[in-house]
Amino acid sequence: MRSAWIVFVLVLIAPAAWAQDQSRTVLSIRTINLDISLDVLAAAAYFSEPDHLNFGGHDPQNRGFTLQNAELTLGGTVDPYIRGDAHIIFLIEDGETAVELEEAFFTTLALPFHLQLMGGQFFTRFGRLNPQHPHMWDFADQPVINNRLFGPDGLRNPGVQLSWLAPLPFYLELIGGVQNATGETATSLLFEEGEVVGGYALIARDVHHLNDLLYMGRAKTAWNPSDTIEVAAGLSGLYGPNASGSATHTEIYGTDLYAKWRPLDADRGFPFVALQAEAMWRAYQTPGQNLRDSGAYAQVLWGFVRRWVAGARVDIAKGNDPADPLRDRRWRVSPNLTFYPGEFSKWRLQYNHDRAEHLADPVHAVFLQVEFLLGSHGAHQF
User: Fold this and answer.
1) Which residues lie below 8 Å from residue 14, measured CB to CB, with a gap of 6+?
2) Could you tell me how far CA 122 lies from the centroid of its own chain?
């Protein structure tokens, strides 16, 4: 009889206990508060010359197919005070899979006086394009001047950044950052040890003093001239060591502008016209002379009907080192057409007419790019 009562009691309480355990499991999963996504970007490419002019780490670089980027993103609010984000990149290099920690950083959420601190491994917040991941680009490849000044993978390194939102009647944000200035992700400052730049063999530069670090400053603002037009502008500067000598340095300056028109009766953002431009200058000090590079790009996007965007970009870059054909005068024109079947995919067709001073003939290129996204999708910057 006692055994029967025990079985009866277990039958009554077991479902309730199981339900309680399940609710605890669901609660623990929810408290993790982790957003996960996978973004895949791939392209088919044709070049008129096998010695093409695409040098970006995520540019289409082969006749045939290229996995430009497979990006695993993890992010979420850690507590009421900080947020964490990480971007892990998968690439195919010579048939082998390469894994790269592109970014991993925290951002504060509750500092006083309109301050925000960021720390970890992150893209340097110089200009508009350098902080963007490849799936955010409006074209299949990076502009020529960005590749020359910031390297094939963009300028990024471990460090800290402090930003201040000024308490003014208009938007003004001031940003200052300090990062390491060594490694492949800082090639705009150092180039690569063992190379020869301006007749000087590059040496190793370790951190011994504060002037062996990379310093960045940026000011950006935005305003609305009318109910249908948005404008944003910025000024950026970099200072850091280079490897041509034990006390030489590099300076980079840039200005950027973005403007977008969209009617009040727009259908999910269409139609629209968006303009974007950046101009940059670099002074690379050597023991005997200063090497100078400059360049710019300007692009226009026309969302002429829902899901369809036509674009065109013009690039120009030049340097004063005649011994280096990769720093000679260069210009490129790139029209493209992008179709967005939905919020989480796109198809892009692009043509490049590329001219370099050291080549007798232009290089023609055609790209067909596709992207798809799985998981949550964070908002892009304005």
Assistant:
1) none
2) 9
DSSP strand pairing (363-375 vs 35-47): antiparallel
Considering Cα of 202, then 208, then 214, then 215, what sign does the dihedral take? negative
Amino acid identity at 359:
L
- Per the CB < 8 A criterion, the answer to whether 284 and 197 are in contact is yes
**Residues 86 and 69: beta-carbon distance below 8 Å:** no
Task: State how far the alpha carbon of 90 is from the alpha carbons of 73, 93, 109, 209, in Å.
Answer: 11, 10, 30, 35
For residue 324, which of 351, 356, 372, 285 has the smallest C-alpha distance?
356
Closest CA to 136 of 237, 58, 201, 198: 58
Question: What's the predicted TM-score (pTM) here?
Answer: 0.88
**pLDDT (mean) for 44-72:** 91
Listed residue (151, 56, 68, 91) closest to 354, CA to CA: 56
pLDDT (mean) for 118-136: 97
Compute the C-alpha angle 186/188/194, nearest 5°. Answer: 80
